[in-house]
Automatic annotation (TrEMBL):
Record has Cytoplasm as a keyword: no
SUPFAM superfamilies: ATPase domain of HSP90 chaperone/DNA topoisomerase II/histidine kinase, GAF domain-like
Gene assigned in the entry: ypdA_3
Catalysed transformations (reactions): ATP + protein L-histidine = ADP + protein N-phospho-L-histidine
Membrane topology, as annotated: Multi-pass membrane protein
Transmembrane segments: 6-24, 36-55, 75-98, 105-122, 134-155, 167-186
GAF domain segment(s): 218-354
Coiled-coil residues: none
Organism: Sporomusa acidovorans (strain ATCC 49682 / DSM 3132 / Mol)
UniProt keyword annotation of Transmembrane present: yes
Main location: membrane
All residue ranges annotated as the Histidine kinase/HSP90-like ATPase domain in the record: 452-555
Pfam family membership, one: His_kinase
EC assignment: 2.7.13.3
Listed name of the protein: histidine kinase
């Protein structure tokens, strides 16, 4: 093989390599190749590979007559990338062109139609990414050998059309190298993009993990500023900008002189990203559309942030030099935007959940059973003449319950405060039971200062009295105990009442009971502290019910402050 022949082969393969590189870099073409079975995807593939095949007619190899070309490479790649319809269409276009320029080339024209269809049939059994360069080389070898046999057996074909010995040897090799080279370049670009994607994903996760505590507080200027600083530090960008829909929330890096937080959005690219809800890649100052002529930022990528289907802002990674936006920048910006959008949505969900829990808590506080209220008033009225002191005490207990129901107290209260309200409730309840009810309260001193969610214990006591003890005939006993065990506050409410039937207990534990008391308490506890904590119910019909309440031990801030001040004083404190 001469140097001239080698240069001719390199020239032909260089054009194929260039086409492969441009194809691999085109997201649109690669998406069409991965999902080719629609006319929207097949049309671009037909145009691309028909151009490659027709151009191959002029990439001649110096092996005498007939002229040996690389057109079969484009035909085979059309079928491999687009399937049988794409392969057939490209083969048909190239065959028509071949007959126009050489009306006697009927056999090669028919064969390239068959070759495109054959390679397309293989595409039905393999995904595009499953076609390795070695598989492509095998398809090219089989196709070239079949072409030689087809031309030799085609009736009426002149002998001059049959390839010479050199063509018989080297043409399959060139086709194999061409198809193999095309697929290798595609695989190389995909691997490179995967590496970029992996680096971007790793960086995005690092950024997301550091920004999560702040974004959970909401998407605002404070959280945006912290997030922008973290992205600027980890992404090594020249500038990072985070905006809302109408104004800039945070800006870190070069250009802070005119891109100031709190001011309206200036960049046309950012406005376009918000309006179109799509990523905007900036390569030149004209793409950015900044009204300040001396803005140092030239290139960048802007990605919208979503809450559901609504755009709530953008994130931008900017560079000071033109045409410096890399694939890594695009992957990083897109990954960060997706993760931040998820975090913002989770923060919104968390906010809605807390609002719902507060509404449920307010409803629980305001829920004073009218029947209980009327009975209490009647009992007080009956005692006004027979036992005025008792009536006065019951009025005080009722006032305590009323004040507690309508006050806007904190979500967390001390166990001592909760027990004070429960004792007021029990004093009224004992007036209804008479001598039938005995109450025992055993609470460790350390447990009295522990913090528990408001109204988490009273519903347990109410259920024990109303559903466990009140229907019972005979003496009734209610026991309330509280103690600390391994940094966990445990409160038990035990009664010797009628118990809970197994089917009813199953419904309560599954959250299907009609009442909101017990399950409301359990859901609030698990939501605040996790599934390790909450309520556990054990009941035996006719023997009674025992309910365990478990929460992490937290001491009241006032007690902690008092202890801390004593530690800082003398031993006589």
């Amino acid at each position: 093989m001469t140097v001239f022949t080698l240069l001719e082969i390199i020239s032909a393969l260089s054009f194929i390599a260039m086409t492969a590189y441009l194809t691999g870099r085109s997201r649109f073409i690669m998406r069409c190749a991965r999902y080719p079975f629609s006319w929207v995807s097949q049309f671009p593939l037909v145009v691309l590979f028909a151009f490659l095949a027709i151009t191959g007619n002029y990439n001649t190899l110096p092996w005498g007559e007939p002229l040996v070309t690389t057109r079969l490479i484009g035909i085979l790649l059309a079928g491999i990338a687009g399937g049988p319809i794409t392969g057939f269409c490209v083969g048909l276009i190239c065959a028509g062109y071949l007959i126009v320029i050489d009306y006697s080339a009927i056999a090669p024209a028919l064969f390239i139609i068959l070759a495109g269809t054959f390679s397309g049939m293989l595409r039905l059994h393999f995904n595009f990414h499953q076609f390795t360069p070695l598989m492509g080389a095998g398809v090219a070898l089989v196709a070239e050998l079949c072409q030689i046999v087809f031309i030799a057996l085609f009736p009426g074909e002149p002998v001059t059309q049959f390839p010479n010995l050199k063509a018989l040897i080297f043409t399959p090799v060139v086709s194999m190298i061409g198809v193999c080279l095309f697929l290798y370049i595609i695989k190389w670009i995909e691997a490179e993009q995967d590496i970029y994607g992996a680096r971007a994903a790793q960086l995005s996760l690092a950024i997301a993990s550091r920004t999560l505590p702040f974004l959970r507080l909401g998407f605002n200027s404070h959280s945006a500023k912290i997030t922008a600083n973290i992205i600027y530090e980890l992404a090594k960008a020249d500038a990072v900008s985070i905006t809302g829909r109408y104004k800039r929330l945070a800006f870190i890096g070069k250009g802070t002189e005119h891109h100031k937080p709190g001011e309206p959005i200036l960049s046309a690219a950012v406005k376009e990203a918000i309006t179109s809800k799509t990523m905007k890649i900036i390569n030149t100052p004209s793409d950015r559309g900044c009204p300040f002529p001396y803005c140092p930022l030239k290139a960048g990528v802007v990605v919208p942030l979503f809450s559901g289907d609504k755009v709530i802002g953008t994130i931008e990674i900017a560079r000071v030099n033109e045409e410096t936006v890399s694939e890594l920048d695009i992957h990083i910006a897109d990954g960060i935007a997706n993760l931040l959008s998820v975090q913002i949505q989770l923060a919104e969900v968390d906010k809605q959940r807390k609002m719902r829990e507060k509404a449920e808590l307010k409803a629980l506080r305001a829920q004073i059973n009218p029947h209980f209220l009327f009975n209490t008033i009647n009992i007080i009225m009956s005692f006004t003449r027979t036992d005025p002191d008792k009536a006065r005490s019951l009025l005080g207990s009722l006032a305590t319950l009323m004040q507690r129901g309508y006050s806007n107290q904190d979500e967390l209260v001390t166990l001592q405060y909760e027990l004070a309200a429960i004792m007021a409730y029990l004093e009224i309840a004992m007036s209804r039971f008479g001598d039938r009810l005995d109450v025992a309260v055993n609470v460790d001193d350390e447990a009295t200062t522990a913090l528990i969610p408001a109204l988490s214990l009273q519903p347990l006591v109410e259920n024990a009295l109303n559903h466990g003890l009140f229907p019972k005939l005979g003496s009734c006993l209610l026991v309330i105990e509280a103690y600390i065990e391994e940094d966990t506050l445990i409160i038990t409410v035990t009664d010797n009442g009628v118990g809970i039937p197994p089917e009813k207990l199953t419904q309560i534990q599954a959250g299907h009971s009609e009442g909101v008391g017990i399950m409301n308490v359990h859901q609030r506890l698990t939501s605040l502290y996790g599934t390790k904590y909450g309520l556990t119910i054990n009941s035996k019909p006719t023997f009674g019910t025992e309910v365990w309440l478990r929460v992490p031990f937290q001491e009241s801030a006032a007690v902690q402050k008092e202890v801390g001040s004593c530690e800082n004083k003398s031993s006589y404190c």
